[in-house]
Design goal:
By secondary structure, the chain is α/β, with parallel strands linked by helices. 41% of the residues lie in helices and 13% in strands. The protein contains 45 helices and 28 strands. A hairpin with a 4-residue loop joins β8 and β9. α16 runs antiparallel to α17. The protein is globular and about 90 Å long.
Amino acid sequence: MTRIATPADDALVRKLSAAVEGTVMGDAFSRGRYATDASIYQMMPKAVVVPRSMGDVSAAMQVAREAGVPVLPRGGGTSQCGQTVNEAVVLDLSKHLNAIVSIDAERREAVVEPGLVLDHLNAALKPHGLWYPVDVSTSSRATLGGMTANNSCGSRSLRYGTSRDNVLAIDALMADGTRARFGEVQPGANLPGPIGELARDLLAIGAREADEIAARFPDVYRRVGGYNLDALVANGRPVNLAHLLVGSEGTLAFSERITLKLSPLPRNKVLGVCHFPSFYKAMDAAQHLVKLDPTAIELVDATMIALARDIPIFRPVVEEFVRGAPEALLIVEFAEDDQAENLRRLAALHDVMADLGFRWDDPGKAPGGVVEAIDPAFQSRIIEVRKQGLNIMMSMKSEGKPVSFVEDCCVRLADLAEYTDRLTAIFRKHGTNGTWYAHASVGTLHVRPVLNLKQDLGVSTMRAIAEEAFEMVRGYKGSHSGEHGDGIVRSEFHRQMFGERIVAAFEEVKDRLDPGGLMNPGKIVRPPKMDDRSLMRFDPGYTVPEFDSVFRWEGHHGAGRGLQGAVEMCNNNGACRKTLDGVMCPSYRVTRDERDLTRGRANTLRLAISGQLGPDAFTSDEMAETMKLCVSCKACRRECPTGVDMAKMKIEVQAARARRNGVPLRERLVGHMPRYARIAARLAPLVNLRNRIPALRRLSERALGFAAERDLPEWRGDWFRTESSASEMSAADVVLFADCFNRYFEPQNLRAAEAVLKRAGLRVAHATAPDGSRPLCCGRTYLSAGMATEAKAEMARTAAALRPALENGASVVGLEPSCLLTFRDEAPALLDDWSAEFGARVMLFEEFLAARAAEGRLALPLAPLDAQTALLHGHCHQKAMNVMGPVQKVLGLVPGLKVELIASSCCGMAGAFGYQAETVGTSRAMAELSLLPRVRAAGDDAIVVADGTSCRHQIADGAGRAALHVARVLEESSKRALT
């Protein structure tokens, strides 16, 4: 039977709302978005609080304490063992409690709030020549509070240690509401206040258990399981009580402020990518390579290489640094200040590899060797692929997924090869295999056997593998938890790993600091069974009934022609929470709300289609609200390593709502624009009065929902009317497709493109309906309104008209990215007779010219312009489809023109989104993140280039500058060359 979200405790929600200034959420949709993390588990919170201040945290904890309800502090929600899910009041610290309190560069210390993201801290530290070196792969969204609670490690722990080694003190809010500073304590010191008595009790436990700790705690590079009782053993030295809270997973106290130890930024760095013909030989080599004193040795196995090659954003990078078909790579990093020393060690790496029997140019040795990466940009590309290892692994499009539960056991390097070989044998014994990557330098490898946890067999297999694997690790005197903590998945095994006495001491510490047991219970001590399916994302009743979908979700399994499988690709690792680079996720960058993430939307969709949010949740108003701020930028299509395509999923929701409720008037006006466009253009002076008469602006907002404060696009009476016959299209070198936006609003762009193509000596025809009826259309406006049937009809009509020309070898070229790229993205998933090969032949204007230039076939005379610089803003769909390179290349053909790419997310206009009264504010906020400030700062000698109609309108509206399509720039340059 399908699990239904439990009703909220209304009394609890009311009390929380009255006590805090921040946001309190008690509805099932909001709580459901916090019911999962990056683990296999799902537990519905009692309520969610987004506190604005530490006072809010204290007040919320007091309300929960009085109600006897647990509390769970949460940062990025990327824990892999179930640490950040619980039937509790969840405190989301990431939105507001993310300040850098202070930086003391001289002392190399920083004080931070728990919701601060690691990359944000390191960006602030960079001008000081410092960084926080616990460089976890999730640094773009991992919060310092979460990292501290988990004792996170990172790839360079061989040099810098774990979080425990880099946390100096923690100012904590205790479970009973008192505050205490956990820091260094001298043995025998008589500290005042509550911390004094607590320190004495904790140090007494350390002294009492010192021998047992020495006997039972694994002596390996990485051990993050259980509580750090060894931190309480003084042996005549100062004890840092903060280290007890490090790794405690929010079960002992709430960390209000964390004092961190900083390190100097490495000045120089080189990488050597070591190739091995077998996985075993790579593992055996690690113990020898570590003698060169690298800062890191990271593993990438053949499975990860193959999966990365299937992900567009990673494929070019993999081809750069992978030579041949290795079974494993070890990425060895040297980062000494003296670059000459790094190069010396890199040379020594070649020698060690040769001594081990791996050298490409020696026929007497096995195939293998070292690919060098000395260029910093090349290094960054390699490191990013490795950092995305988890997400790459989770991109498998199958019913079974790599599952984290024995993922980061740690053994000594001398045992590593034998350990991995034996663990692989355990996997095979149970009918599966594993994926391997991560930290070979410290004996902590991330391994995930592929299992289907929707089935009882998959869950029982997981249990059996866990028991055998942990028994083997104990035999090696290793640690069953080497980086990702305990959570639900490993806490159960502490008794076998540490013994009864140590587990009793863990419980004693827990009870001393949290006597009511309300701080994230069930983690580290007194845990549930790790294979309790009632706690899992796919519980025994998990089902998704068959339903109609708009698209064919190729390569995915499940209901809705694979939509279920596409939704379930989200592994909750939170790559969409990044805000410092890329495009994804524009609305989250403005609101910082979980609802407005690709992850938040995907979780809501999964819960809805599986019935967990009640009947009709997929078409509900709450679902519409979840999707409202998605601007369909498609960035997730490219930047989400598991390929969650939220733009298409939004269309599925809109189409389902349209089938159920009909299409509202405003959306019908947007969708049907191609049908009435010629009439509107003929009546342009009359229709454009809306922008000139304030009363009409206000009326359009009240009646239709178009924001009165925005000018709508201006219809043109001189719209682009040129057409061609079918024979002209078939005989042409290039067929120019006139999209609705440029045809009716900016025809000068199409005229410029036609002029450029002809000056390049090409025969140009115009995409025209064979029967001479209304102009062709891509169907984009219908898709944006959820009018899927109409969109498919428009696409089919246009595809039929273009196909003969494509079959005769012509290229179809157009200007508007959102329109042209529809034939590459949505059309193959909608039309039975339109292939991806056809879609690839429908090209953007700049793609076509760049391809001809690369082939040496572009005879286009160009002359310098008055402008010295072209500031280029990329349309989201250009970025998503990886076609920004061509526009940069063709602009670079203009003599003397320097091209600068504006680092920006979505412009925020996004078709109708920026014109809607309810979203105009968010639209402008998106543009203000980076795009508009950069445009305003541009000098008079710069031109602004933007190929997207919406982008140009946003720039004009927000910065008061006219942006040009690249066709206009090339037309002016070529005209000057001919005069």
